[in-house]
Design brief:
heterotetramer; A alpha+beta; B alpha+beta; C alpha/beta; A: alpha+beta; Mth169, Chain: A; 4-stranded antiparallel beta sheet; 3 helices; 4 strands; 34% helix; elongated; B: alpha+beta; Phosphoribosyl-aminoimidazole Synthetase, Chain A, domain 2; 7-stranded mixed beta sheet; binds adenosine-5'-diphosphate; binds magnesium ion
Chain lengths: 101, 789, 230, 101
């Protein structure tokens, strides 16, 4: 499973800002970046609705600070998938999105 | 399938990749002779890494002996441990001892600057911890390619962040170091890290495994595939198969990971074009400073409980090194069950487990009745600890894997009786040309305006400018005992809050001088570090060194090395400062271009009352300013020659250890008597640089009147050694004068400290520069370059 | 003051705490009785005030203070704080207090993106807290600042409330070192018993090892407050 | 666009380790975590193959440290999507996967 955590839009994001500036200096124009975190969770056992809800709680309690961050929990295959697999993989994704935070 | 001792006996002629692992054919032959059979692949792994340059000192040993022959007495007492231990231990009185050592992590810091530098700090801290000491501070001596080079903008910030990131997280104040630039370091930066620790005399621990039946405990991080790129050649299915993918890596087995400048995969770092990694086994190690902090506290609690009979850190060569060194230094053998080693990656082969350089691990020898208490303390600190073997009555190191023996060797042959080389060395022909290419023809500035302009250009040059862009990323306050730290000449740490006992440390090396004359260059490094320590008011006691050179297979480099060692040994004899330990780093070169010879010297001093330390900054208006020592026209290799003329040639300044001792005596006594408002040693950039730094420290001005017969250029910019700039407290002039007379140190009145308001630096009859202008020229250099990246 | 009769003040050591010894020493030097507390315990050992010290608890991995906030001892600290016990969070301690929601807002990576260690000028904005009563309103002080994630952020409404209720108690002056909103260096809760600040007063109690002694007033404030209540 | 950057599997991930431990202590059992970074890129103009390739280069040059990290570039709608949108969104994903690093 994957939990994405991003700074809320109204919170300043010094790292994203720095990356944006650095990209421009490197000649990559017209790209603006926000930097967050990606957690890949290896969950033992079958992924049930209950298990998803539990991960959601874990994200809310620990992985994200909802004062300044939003998060998004979803099921995703191992990320090392090669190009060919990707279509299939994407289609398989089940998402349990959230505006939490 | 692991290659067992039985297999080795059955298949004596099986081909083995010893050359790929960096062994020479006579070395391989000797291994077979020692064992009376071919080695197993695990044994081959152990020998190859332990007999590498990095671990065995095979090229440097014959020269380093000179250090061991030095007297081991300091003014305070005998060394409690010297060369040959993880780090030397110096008695500093009141029942305290201090241990300190400097070590290189050059190559990894080029490949991956942040992690390379970070794990360099981590490694040296564990060395200090293993002596039974609490680590109390770190320093770092750094060399980079030219500041404006794009690759410096990759390496420098990463290295600094790594040193800060690791040291800050451990809660160790960073109290000093160096940063210098030269184009020879562009493809081969130097990252030398020093750690200092303190212990009570009775707490000294040594790395040896004694007492049959005692348990071997591995604790700290679990073992992963870190730093074993080269060895995966052994683990691959078939040896042929490995050659294609691992050739580049194998070339850089542990020895070379530290030693060789990268020629292949390492370079790819930040700008690679998506090439496939050569191997799944990384040669890069990632540090976990948080775990190391727990390891420190846990280990100190275990020491305090008296639960350990021997201890060793795991650094280069990992378990191979720790098991063979502990067993070799002890009185018996050792049996290890490799299956018990906790793994982060379960696919590791026994060879890889033995070679892994996973960080934050220690190995302890513990009596059986203490094991439970030991494990309990580890649990308290959430540190993983596992009994993986025991000390045996025999004299073999035996390692089993899945119930079969994969290693059965005499440990001394692995750890302490490796090959020793008498590498050929000779003074290169070009040395004469370099020395003949003096500075006589270089135009010198004339008149006040040109002098002022020279001063501003020098102080803004990368080697002389403000270093706070670097040092502000380091915590210098944590632990509450930093009495002096950067930018002062020496770092001073309080050891005892009640008695005021403290230690001072400085590291130095001017590698330009070392190129002009490696013998003198090493002595100049020693003299400068010694002078820095004395400037703080502390009495220099002992040294550590980190000798960074190019390839020992080049007779010219080997000559530089041997000259540096000889110079250092002679210098230490003259000053009465034993060498307690150190580190050699060879193969620092890019292609065939070696780095400037860089023998970094760290000097440790003791100060009996830290409240009497002397800072480098002018501290009150009206204090008279004096120059201690004699000034000669010595500008070859100087900052002036470099910055203004981009010139390196001639002969370096002369070193006079008798003068250095006399100067130190004056500085120490003056501090004890409380005569000084400030003291700052003269080195790179000469008097001009010292004046600027003393003024900028607290924002005071200065009015200087050079002696009438003096050549103002020479007086301001010469780099004659044995000198210091002092300001003197009210009414203390006569005391200082008599101290100088007694010790035979020339004393010249230069002028007076002036107010902070509208402060300026005035050299009467020459120029007057507002301090604001000086500060601007001095402090913007590094930030301006870094801001553009 | 004799430390054995001064009020008992606890300092919690978390795995990775670094300035805990310094905080204990500061309490002693300022006349309190320093009491080490352990993160894994569920007792406050009869202390009358608690300090969460600086450092890199749990390596500052994930987010600074995020993991420590769940230490067993924090249950007790949170309860005591709600009951009015003086609680001070310094640097990492401030981050823990925010993560524990004892103080509003959060601390994020410095806008300069590097660790900053410097002697920082501050203005004391409020003396109406248990920890700042010995300062004078508007006093200019200098304290050691050393942190990588010291940028104070909060939503607009929270900022308005903090400013309006006098809960901003230290402000950076002569330059904002880390991008903190409104130059905020330290805040308190509504009641004024819980205070968090990024700079390190415990490194400013002894002229030998710190740039000033301006940190003493923090410790003497709470010690005087507690002494008056005996 | 999104660039995910993760520590290579064989590289130590102290952060993930700390999170894994903390989750266990909080009673979320059987979850093991690796922590990486997520960059959300706002790219001006249409997303063409060329543009994708450019972002890929940017990721390789700056966003990921390929000595110790792998990355993955893909097109993804704004992540603030609510639950309902997700299916659609996932299906729309075009991936330009990579084992770079
Ligand atoms: N340049 C040197 N000067 C003095 N002693 C040295 C030098 N280089 C290495 N040594 C000593 O040789 C011994 C072996 O060094 P080393 O292998 O670095 O120790 P470690 O086991 O910590 O890696 C140590 O005692 C070290 O202090
Ligand atoms: Mg060692």
């Amino acid at each position: 499973m994957v939990v994405d955590v991003m700074p809320k839009p109204e919170i300043l994001d010094p790292q994203g800002k720095a990356v944006t500036g650095a990209l421009a200096r490197l000649g990559f124009a017209g790209i603006s970046v926000r930097q967050g975190k990606r957690f890949e969770l290896d969950v033992i056992g079958e992924i049930t609705e209950d298990r998803l809800a539990e991960v959601h709680r874990a994200a809310e309690t620990l992985l994200a600070n909802t004062v300044i961050e939003t998060f998004n929990v979803r099921v995703e295959e191992a990320p090392e998938a090669s190009e060919e697999d990707d279509q299939a993989e994407s289609a398989e994704q089940t998402e349990l999105a959230t505006q939490a935070g | 399938m692991a290659d067992t001792v039985g297999d080795a006996a059955r298949t004596p002629d099986q081909a083995q990749p010893w050359a790929e692992l960096g062994l020479k054919d006579d070395e391989y032959a000797r291994i077979k002779e020692i064992l009376g059979r071919r080695p197993t692949s695990s044994e081959l792994a152990m020998y190859s890494v332990m007999w590498s340059e990095h671990c065995s000192y095979k090229s440097s040993k014959v020269h380093l002996r000179q250090f061991a022959e030095l007297p081991t007495e300091t003014p305070v007492g005998k060394l409690l441990a010297g060369i040959g231990e993880n780090a030397g231990v110096v008695d500093i009185g009141q029942g305290y001892a201090v241990t300190f050592k400097i070590e290189s992590h050059n190559h990894p810091s080029y490949v991956e600057p942040y992690q390379g530098a970070a794990t360099g700090v981590g490694g040296i801290v564990r060395d200090i911890l293993a002596m039974g000491a609490r680590p109390i501070g770190v320093m770092d001596s750094l060399r980079f390619g030219p500041l404006h080079e794009p690759d410096t903008a990759r390496v420098l910030p990463g290295v600094v962040a790594g040193i800060g990131g690791y040291g800050n997280c451990l809660g160790l104040p960073n109290i000093g170091g160096e940063v210098a630039y030269d184009h020879t370091y562009l493809g081969n930066p130097l990252v030398n890290a020093l750690c200092v620790g303190v212990l009570r005399h009775e707490d000294l621990h040594l790395a040896k495994a004694t007492g049959a039946g005692n348990q071997v405990i591995l604790y700290g991080a679990s073992t992963g595939a870190d730093g074993i790129g080269g060895v995966s050649v052994l683990a691959s299915e078939s040896f042929d198969d490995a050659e294609g993918t691992n050739a580049g890596q194998a070339e850089r087995s542990t020895e070379q990971v530290e030693a060789y400048p990268s020629t292949s995969s390492g370079r790819s770092s930040s700008t690679s074009s998506g090439r496939k990694p050569a191997s799944k086994r990384p040669s890069v190690q990632v540090g976990d400073p948080f775990l190391e902090k727990l390891l420190i506290e846990c280990t100190l609690e275990i020491f305090a409980a008296g639960l350990i009979t021997g201890i060793q850190d795991l650094g280069g060569a990992g378990l191979s090194c720790a098991t063979s060194e502990l067993a070799s230094a002890g009185d018996g053998g050792m049996h290890i069950d490799l299956d018990l080693v906790p793994l982060r990656n379960t696919t590791l082969s026994p060879e890889e487990i033995l070679m892994s350089e996973s960080q934050e691990r220690m190995m302890a020898i513990v009596e059986p009745e203490h094991v439970e208490d030991f494990l309990a303390i580890c649990r308290k600190w959430d540190v993983l600890a596992t009994v993986i073997g025991e000390v045996t009555a025999g004299d073999r190191l035996v390692i089993d894997w899945h119930g079969e023996t994969v290693v059965d060797v005499p440990p001394r042959t692995v750890a302490h009786e490796g090959p020793v080389y008498q590498r050929p060395y000779g003074r290169p022909e070009w040395q004469d040309q370099v020395q003949a290419n003096g500075i006589d023809q270089l135009p010198r500035p004339a008149g006040g305006e040109e002098l002022a302009d020279t001063l501003l250009r020098l102080i803004g040059s990368p080697n002389l400018c403000d270093k706070s862009w670097v040092t502000d990323q380091y915590d210098r306050y944590v632990r509450g005992n930093s009495v002096l730290a950067q930018p002062d000449d020496a770092g001073v740490l309080r050891i005892d809050e009640y008695s005021g006992l403290g230690v001072a440390l400085a590291t130095d090396c001017n590698s330009r001088f070392a190129l002009l004359d490696p013998y003198a260059g090493a002595q100049l490094a020693l003299a400068e570090a010694y002078r820095n320590v004395a400037s703080s008011g502390a009495e220099p006691l002992a040294i550590t060194d980190c000798l960074n050179f190019g390839s020992p297979e080049d007779p010219a480099i080997m000559w530089q090395f041997s000259e540096a060692v000889r110079g250092l040994a002679d210098g230490c004899r003259a000053l009465g400062t034993p060498v307690t330990g150190g580190n050699v780093s060879f193969y620092n070169q890019t292609g065939s271009t070696p780095i400037l010879p860089t023998p970094v010297v760290g000097v440790l001093g003791v100060i009996d009352d830290v409240t009497r330390r002397t800072s480098g900054g002018f501290s009150a208006a009206e204090h008279p300013i004096y120059l201690l020592g004699e000034t000669r026209d010595e500008l070859a290799g100087s900052a002036w020659a470099q910055v203004i003329h981009d010139h390196l040639g001639g002969r370096p300044p002369e070193v006079d250890f008798a003068q250095e001792k006399a100067l130190a005596e004056v500085l120490i006594r003056a501090s004890r008597r409380g005569l000084l408002g400030s003291a700052h040693d003269l080195a790179d950039g000469g008097l001009a640089q010292a004046l600027v730094e003393s003024a900028l420290r607290y924002g005071f001005g200065a009015r200087i009147e050079l002696p009438s017969e003096a050549d103002p250029f020479v007086w301001l910019f010469s780099e004659t050694t044995g000198r210091a700039l002092v300001s003197v407290k009210e009414g203390a002039d006569r005391d200082l004068a008599s101290l100088c007379r007694i010790n035979g140190v020339m004393l010249t009145k230069l002028g007076v400290v002036t107010a902070q308001e509208d402060a300026s630096l005035e050299v009467v009859g020459q120029f007057m520069l507002p301090l604001t202008r000086i500060r601007e020229a001095w402090q913007d250099t590094i930030p301006a370059v870094m801001a553009t990246h | 003051m004799d430390p054995s009769v001064g009020p008992r003040i606890g300092v919690v050591t978390f795995p990775g705490s670094l300035d805990d010894q310094d905080a204990l020493r500061a309490i002693r030097l300022c006349g309190g009785q320093p009491v080490p507390l352990w993160h894994g315990d569920d007792t406050l050992d009869d202390v009358r005030a608690v300090i969460l010290p600086g450092g890199f608890s749990y390596g500052d991995y994930l987010r600074c203070g995020a993991i420590s906030r769940f230490a067993p001892v924090m249950t007790e600290v949170i309860k005591a704080a709600h009951d009015g016990m003086p609680v001070l969070g310094i640097c990492n301690g401030f981050q823990i207090l925010c993560e524990a929601h004892l103080l509003p807002g959060a601390l994020i990576r410095n806008d300069v993106r590097v660790f900053v260690c410097k002697d920082q000028d501050l203005r004391v904005e409020s003396v109406d807290t248990t920890w700042t009563s010995d300062f004078t309103q508007g006093q200019g002080i200098t304290l050691v600042l050393k942190s990588g994630e010291g940028g104070y952020v909060a939503d607009e409404e929270t900022l308005r409330r903090l400013e309006g209720e006098g809960q901003v108690i230290f402000r950076y002056v002569n330059g904002n070192p880390n991008g903190s909103f409104n130059d905020i260096a330290g805040i308190c809760n509504e009641r004024g018993n819980v205070v968090g600040l990024m700079p390190h007063p415990e490194h400013n109690v002894d002229s030998l090892t710190g740039p000033t002694q301006d940190g003493r007033a923090i410790f003497s404030s709470v010690i005087n407050f507690l002494a008056a209540r005996v």
